[in-house]
Design brief:
The complex is a heterodimer of chains A (311) and B (493).
Chain A (H helix, E strand, L loop, with lengths): L2 H33 L10 H5 L3 H7 L5 H10 L7 H13 L8 H21 L1 H25 L4 H31 L6 H15 L3 H8 L5 H10 L7 H14 L4 H13 L11 H25 L5
Chain B lengths: L30 E3 L2 E2 L4 H8 L3 H18 L2 E6 L2 E6 L2 E9 H25 L4 H4 L5 H5 L21 E8 L5 E7 L6 H14 L1 H6 L8 H10 L11 E4 L8 H11 L2 E3 L4 E4 L2 E6 L2 E4 L2 E4 L22 H6 L4 E3 L10 H15 L11 E2 L3 H9 L4 E5 L9 E2 L5 H13 L4 E5 L5 E6 L3 E10 L1 E4 L3 E3 L4 E5 L13 E9 L2
Parallel strand pairs in B: 5-24, 8-9, 8-13, 13-14
Antiparallel strand pairs in B: 1-2, 3-4, 6-7, 6-21, 10-11, 11-12, 15-18, 16-17, 16-18, 19-20, 20-23, 21-22, 23-24
Helix pairs in contact in B: 2-6, 3-11
The chains are: A mainly alpha (311), B alpha+beta (493).
Chain lengths: 311, 493
């Protein structure tokens, strides 16, 4: 497999995951803001902070309101991580790697791209937003399903899995961080307990993990337990432990990966050592931040091992 | 004919008015006279007559959305950047009888066989020149003759492995060769996609009519390329070398690589070591056996040709000259792609094969000849003037549609470089019924580009890419100049 093709396949998976995650996130926020008491200061702008996109946002918009945030995340071509930008990049990547992904991938990507561009205006308005976001999520799942059911488990498959897992793990750390910071912002009044539960419930929902969480932990929705679950559970596909495991398995199937595999094995053993689930404050936020940095380091190792060298 | 769907009653509005369709003095591919379809088109036309206005509109929309979903596009270069345009497509197919096509196909094989013998001769003994059949200066002044190719012996003596030959039908209904494209001919993916679209848009007809399939082209191309491998290995590594995403034919490069299961590479993915070509993979370097290159000769190798080329690979020519990698088409094959050489093809066929050409050339005036030039200069308003080495319909003068000033410019150009110009009578290109505006049927001029493959075996596509001049009265069919296309049906009738 060409190094260039490996790189593009990896990024296809990352952007595809990003599109789905962004749509999920906005959908959950829609619900969340209906549920929280009015005095809770928990705004749409958190979605910008969570994506570390404050600077890009401020260059484009003056007002940090719902409309601008949603527009920035879904429809802004100047935002590299927006749904439209990610889809454009998916299209460019698939277009140049059509020979290694299932044939219909290209058609499905075009369909999704057309759907988003045709319905974008309605999607930004709140009335039709839910339906629009559902359409995006379904479109992504259709592509994932196609890959899952018809793609041989070759090198391209492994690069798709690695890309998807890194992006997932990254998004999970960001959503957890958003949860922690929202809880920290709560005023300690009568509503606080209730609000905490709503926030953590929505953290789970934004990762599609609420049902799995309840079945696995058999406890109520509490911060320490949710964070522990989303970091360390081995079988739920969006946890950090599971994502790292998939990266390790796929890397071990690819050529010249001994060093990376050894590194990942070591990481698996001690990555959760510093997590303190009892102290849900700045310490946890620092830890999540370190996790993000670690994921960036894994990306660098993958790139230098298999991707083309740019002079 | 099978009753279709549920329109039932006979009073629906007829969208297509076939009775009034007339192509005046031109040969029409589908209709022989108003209201009467030619034999290969009979079932097609009687089916289309059953469609109501809404049906036709629905089918047109279906074609448009299919094209968008399949992502069939080509790139147009404009001042505002490159635009990916959806492929302009007319849903009414163009039909040719299989019997007539058999002769044309045999003629195309004959032509490419002779052209390859000719190219091989030019890079070795040059017998045809010594025997005075083709004048020496034609070769001496050819822009596409490459000294670097002299003495090289490509497999099977074949230089042009993939050829796109443009055929036209004139008023007499016979095929003529308009030009041969022996460098990097494009369009075959659109031929394949046109068929895929038509199958979705007019599925009923494929049950009724015996239409020869076109889908085996990628497999044939693969066989053609595989036979060229210098290493006798079981699974030679074949790559398609593209200039990249900004090339107007990128869609086709990716499409063909995918269909053949070959790697799609850019120059930066390849490297030459010890006179062998390798590609950069996740496992390290992997040897490449056959390169289907879609970049021009002059960009192939910065060590030999254009020093600034970033599209090619340094050392590629060395590897090819040593026989360590096959290039298709071979460098230098374009020498026979010259429009002055074109004029000599009938003699070339006679010389190497001792046969008469099965498909005639269009009458051609060579401007280097004093007498012919005089005629051309006196008749610029009636002729089409073409530069000898351009492609894509650029740099042409279409006499009857030209201004006085344009004719004066061309007269000067011809006088200053007569070798570089040829002229042909303005052809009464055949037409076919095409949907324009709001479901109106009008004749539009068209041509046909079949593709011919040659290495161990020779293969001709069933039909080819029909290109349509979508503008009323226009004779220019190139997609870069507002042309569209139709599916091409070779029909047993």
């Amino acid at each position: 497999m060409l190094s260039k093709v490996a790189e593009r396949t990896y990024w296809t998976a990352r952007y595809l995951e990003r599109v789905e995650n962004t749509a999920r996130l906005v959908r959950v926020y829609d619900n969340l803001l209906f549920d929280l008491p009015r005095n809770v200061n928990f705004g749409w702008y958190n979605l910008i902070t969570l994506n570390s996109a404050q600077q890009e946002f401020e260059e484009r918009y003056k007002v940090q309101d719902e409309r601008n945030v949603v527009k920035f995340l879904l429809g802004d071509e100047h935002n590299y991580s927006s749904v439209v930008s990610s889809l454009k990049l998916i299209r460019e990547n698939v277009r140049t790697t059509r020979d290694v992904v299932p044939e219909e991938t290209w058609e499905l990507v075009n369909e999704l791209n057309l759907y988003v561009n045709d319905n974008l205006q309605q999607g930004i308005n709140r009335r039709k937003r839910h339906e629009f976001l559902d359409g995006i999520i379904k479109g992504c799942q259709q592509i994932q399903g196609l890959i899952y059911t018809t793609m041989p488990h070759d090198a391209a498959w492994d690069f798709l899995r690695i890309g998807r897992s890194i992006e997932r793990a990254d998004m999970t750390t960001r959503i957890l961080d958003a949860g922690v910071s929202a809880v920290l912002q709560l005023v300690d009044d009568d509503n606080a307990v209730n609000s905490r539960q709503i926030i953590w419930g929505n953290v789970l929902r934004s990762l599609g993990a609420d049902q799995a969480y309840r079945r696995t932990t058999r406890t109520s929705v509490r911060g320490d337990s949710v964070v522990h679950y989303l970091l360390e559970d081995k079988v739920f596909p969006r946890t950090i432990a599971h994502s790292l495991y998939i990266i390790l398995i796929s890397a071990s199937r690819l050529p010249r990966s001994h060093e990376l595999v050894a590194y990942m094995e070591e990481l698996q053993l001690n990555i959760f050592d510093d997590a303190d689930y009892e102290q849900q404050g700045e310490h946890l936020r620092d830890y999540l931040n370190d996790l993000q940095t670690e994921l960036g380091a894994i990306h660098e190792k993958i790139a230098s091992l298999w991707f083309p060298i740019y002079e | 004919m099978r009753k279709s769907q549920s329109h039932g009653c006979g009073e629906q509005s007829m969208a297509i008015n076939w009775k009034d369709y007339s192509s005046a003095e031109f040969f029409d591919e589908v209709m022989s006279s108003p209201g009467n379809a030619r034999k290969p088109a009979k079932k097609l036309v009687s089916y289309l007559k059953t469609l109501s206005e809404e049906d036709v509109t629905a089918r047109k929309l279906a074609a448009e959305s299919t094209i968008k979903e399949m992502g069939v596009s080509f790139t147009v270069y404009t001042e505002g950047g490159n635009i990916d345009r959806a492929w302009p497509f007319d849903i009414i197919p163009r039909t040719i009888s299989s019997k007539q096509w058999e002769t044309a196909a045999a003629g195309l094989k004959q032509r490419l066989t002779a052209l390859n013998l000719f190219i091989n001769d030019l890079y070795h003994e040059q017998k045809i020149i010594k025997d005075g059949v083709v004048p020496e200066f034609v070769l001496k002044q050819s822009k596409n003759y490459r000294k670097e190719c002299e003495g090289i012996k490509p497999a099977f003596g074949v230089w042009a492995h993939i050829c796109g030959t443009d055929l036209v039908r004139a008023g007499d209904g016979e095929f003529y060769v308009l030009e041969d494209n022996l460098r990097v001919p494009s369009g075959v993916s659109y031929m394949l996609e046109n068929r895929a679209i038509t199958k979705r848009v007019l599925p009923e007809l494929f049950e009724e009519v015996d239409i020869q399939p076109v889908g085996d082209y990628p497999a044939r191309l693969f066989d053609t390329l595989e036979a060229l491998s210098p290493r006798r290995v079981k699974r030679p590594v074949i790559v398609v070398l593209t200039p990249g995403i900004f090339n107007s034919a990128y869609f086709e490069h990716a499409f063909l690589a995918q269909q053949m299961g070959a790697e799609l590479v850019e120059g930066s993915d390849l490297v030459v070591q010890d006179d062998c070509v390798f590609m950069k993979t996740i496992s390290g370097l992997e040897r490449v056996d056959v390169i289907y290159r879609r970049i021009d000769d002059l960009f192939l190798d910065p060590e030999v040709f254009d020093k600034n080329s970033v599209l090619g690979v340094a050392g590629l020519m060395r590897a090819w000259q040593k026989g360590n990698v096959a290039l298709a088409n071979a460098p230098g094959a374009g020498v026979a792609d010259d429009k002055v050489v074109y004029a000599f093809v009938p003699q070339v066929i006679k010389y190497y094969l001792d046969e008469d050409p099965l498909i005639p050339n269009v009458e051609t005036f060579l401007c280097y000849d004093d007498k012919q030039r005089e005629y051309v200069l006196a008749n610029l308003d009636k002729l089409v003037v073409k530069p000898a080495n351009e492609s894509g319909g650029y740099g042409m003068l279409v006499g009857p549609h030209s201004t006085k000033k344009e004719r004066e410019t061309f007269a000067d150009l011809i006088k200053s470089n007569p070798r570089n110009y040829i002229a042909q009578p303005t052809l009464a290109l055949s037409t076919a019924p095409t949907l324009v505006g709001k479901n109106e049927l009008e004749p539009r001029h068209l041509d046909l580009r079949p593709f011919i493959l040659q290495s161990r075996d020779t293969y001709v596509t069933n039909g080819g890419l029909t290109r349509v001049a979508m503008k009323k009265g226009s004779l220019v069919v190139n997609s870069s100049q507002g042309g569209g296309s139709k599916d091409t049906w070779i029909v047993d009738a």
